[in-house]
Amino acid sequence: MNRRVVPAIAALVFFAVIGAVSLGDRAPGATQALWRRVRSIGHEVEVRFNADLIDRSDVPFSYDAIGHFGLYFVAAILTYITLRGRLGVITIIVLVIGFSGAMEVAQPLLSSSRNMQASDFIANTFGVLVGVGVAAIGTRVFSFATSRRALG
Questions:
Q1: Which band of pLDDT confidence, cut at 50, 70 and 90, is reported for residue 79?
Q2: SS3 for 46?
Q3: What are the CA-CA distances from residue 67 to residues 6, 22, 48, 50 (Å)?
Q4: Left (φ > 0), alpha (ψ -120 to 50) or beta: where does 85 sit?
C-alpha cells in the first residue's frame, strides 16, 4: 500500500469530522458534555495533587480556542504528510486555512445554532501554521535519520 494512502484517508475523515462538528446543530451539546467530563477528570487531578489547573482566569486562552488550535494542528499535519511533494508548503497552508474559513462562513448559513467567530478562525490559523511547521521539520528529521541509518 502506498505510504500516503493512510494519511490521505485519515485527512479526509478528519476533515469530514471537522465539517460535521462545525456545522452540526447538535455538536455544541456533545462538545459541552465532553468538556464537562474533561473538567471533572481535571478537578479530580487537582484535588489529588493539590494543583490549580482547570478554569484559571490567568490562562490567556479559552478551552474553545485550544480545541480549534488542536483540530487544525492535526488537520495541517495530516494534509502536509498527504500532499507534500505534490503541493508546496504555502499552497498546503492556504488550502487548510481556506477550509477553516469556509467552515466559519458556512456555520451561520447551514446551522441554526452556530455562528461565525473571528477568534475561532485565528485559533485555526495558528493551528495550521504550527502544524505545518511541525510536520515539515518532523519529515526532514525523519528523512535525515533514515538516510543516515541506510548509510550505515
A1: very high
A2: helix
A3: 24, 12, 25, 25
A4: left
